[in-house]
Write a structure and sequence with these properties.
Layout lengths: L3 H32 L3 E10 L4 E13 L3 E3 L1 H10 L3 H14 L11 E6 L7 H11 L8 E7 L9 H9 L3 E7 L5 H8 L3 E4 L1 H6 L4 H16 L3 E4 L5 H9 L4 E2 L8 E2 L3 H9 L1
Parallel strand pairs: 2-4, 4-5, 5-6, 6-7, 7-8, 8-9
Antiparallel strand pairs: 1-2, 1-9, 1-10, 2-3
Bound molecules: ligand C2E and calcium ion (CA) (3 copies).
């Protein structure tokens, strides 16, 4: 009879193997998805409630995987990051967005937000090269905003890179502000133009005393440092009113519009900007 320890050992090895195989196959899936262009771009409007108009959009990826069914970005983005596939995925988004710019107003003040993982800043040449090849090559008539998530720690960012981005009229936004563990050091390192208040703080308004205090503090911080504030996940008129009363006028959320396919955006804009 096999000793129990051996059986458990084999079982553990088998489980590890299955887990590895699954992750490997997920890398294969992402590569395949890029090659076959299975990813599509959606966009969600950003409302400027003071001017009562849409000032920009955020680009959000969708993946309708023909083998596995739809997969949400909350699932595939962290895996792409862990598997070193986030750079090709970001390049795909930049490239596809640049090809679709005719869907958006040709206005240098119209913002297009693209989510970029901090991995893209690891080496200051990667981002600038990708932007030159994939974005500036089409002579964009809109302003690009790079939304950086503090999901993983930020490496030392070269001040030259930040100057170069600003010189090219690119804005930097810190996404999900307040949810990472190094928010304050990011402010100092990046000198961002925009802070995006995470939806967990927006949802806390009127319901959660501790988190809504954090919301107030983030707003105060942005105002003191002269950083533009955008609130995401705005779902109710109460949240919108509270944010506006506290000086946050750029709002994004289901209250205004869900993410939509890029083809639908021109009509949505015509109906909303009049
Ligand atoms: P995020 O950048 O914080 O994007 C905002 C998320 O909030 C989106 O989820 C959006 O659909 C959702 N949302 C918008 N309005 C509301 C609302 O009123 N209520 C609620 N509850 N949710 C709202 P989505 O599209 O599932 O994306 C999830 C995350 O995946 C994004 O969070 C972003 O971190 C990542 N992601 C999406 N597309 C890309 C991409 O192209 N590149 C990278 N690196 N990450 C991406
Ligand atoms: Ca974002
Ligand atoms: Ca966010
Ligand atoms: Ca988020």
């Amino acid at each position: 009879r096999l000793p129990l320890a051996l059986i458990f050992g084999l079982l553990a090895a088998w489980i590890t193997w299955i887990a590895t195989a699954r992750r490997m196959s997920f890398s294969w899936e992402i590569n395949m998805g890029i090659a076959q262009r299975e990813f599509t771009l959606f966009c969600q409007p950003l409302l400027n409630t003071r001017a009562q108009r849409c000032d920009g959009v955020e680009i959000l990826l969708r993946w309708n995987n023909p083998r596995l069914g739809p997969i949400t970005p909350d699932v595939f983005i962290p895996i792409a990051e862990a598997k070193n596939l986030i750079l090709p995925l970001t390049r795909y988004v930049l490239n596809e967005t640049a090809k679709e710019l005719h869907r958006f107003p040709a206005d240098p003040k119209f913002h297009i937000g693209i989510n970029v993982a901090a991995a893209h800043l690891r080496d200051d040449k990667i981002l600038l090269e990708d932007l030159n090849n994939l974005w500036f090559s089409v002579n964009p008539t809109v302003q690009l905003t790079i939304e950086l998530t503090e999901r993983d720690a930020l490496h030392d960012v070269n001040a030259g890179l930040l100057r170069a981005l600003h010189g090219k009229n690119i804005q930097l936004a810190i996404d999900d502000f307040g949810t990472g563990n190094s928010s304050l050091s990011w402010l100092e390192k990046l000198h961002p133009d925009v802070l995006k208040i995470d939806k967990s703080f927006t949802h806390a308004i009127g319901t959660d005393a501790v988190n809504s205090t954090v919301t107030d503090i983030i707003i105060a911080l942005g105002q003191r440092l002269n950083i533009e504030l955008v609130a995401e996940g705005v779902e109710t008129p109460e949240q919108a009113n509270y944010l506006q009363r506290h000086g946050v006028h750029l709002l994004q959320g289901y209250l205004y519009a869900p993410p939509m396919p890029l083809e639908e955006f021109p009509q949505w804009l015509a109906e909303h900007n009049g």
